[in-house]
Amino acid sequence: MKKAVIFDLDGTLSDSIASMKYCGDRALAPFGYGPFPESDYKYFVGDGAANLIKRALKAGGDEKLVHFEEAFALYKKFFAENCMYQVKPYEGIPELLAALKEKGLKIAVLSNKPHDQTIDVIETLFGKGYFDIIRGQKDGVPIKPDPAGVFAILRQWNLTAEDILYLGDTATDMKTGKSAGAFTVGALWGFRDRRELEEGHADAIIVHPLELLEYV
Which residues of the chain have pLDDT under 70? Predict the structure, then answer.
């Protein structure tokens, strides 16, 4: 019996690609790059905001990242103001969370999105205090796939990796969960495909959020 679930945020709990495209395109436009389609942003994202901008600049032709510092500063500014732009929970996520709570499981979010915006998104979509723990990217703390965030959550709960499920939609998430020793589930409704999740050695892959209940 599992005691808790740790969730990725973007592409797992929240359908947020429009917000990142909106802010990314605005940040890149002054330098003559973009706009990029959402299908590109689904591969720019996943490893923190800095890597999103680096990937977008390289896709636009700035291989040496000459404009990185300026574009990244603009992105952070725009995202702080617009992190909820067209963001919504995926179908089935509210029902999944309610079912987990009814079973008495704890729930946490671990995201590479900046910490303040991670809190904003979660509290706007699900309410303040709904999640037991919310952890976004913080200066000086390794981002995923480093498992440090998972271990920090486990310490707060006084649990071991064997007590949890880890749910995410990218290879980065699968590496994070596997590195922590957790049972790792890939979400096919997110930003990446089955092949990536399989190559990331997901222990299970599901097509709808409520399928997660089969593993708790």
Answer: none
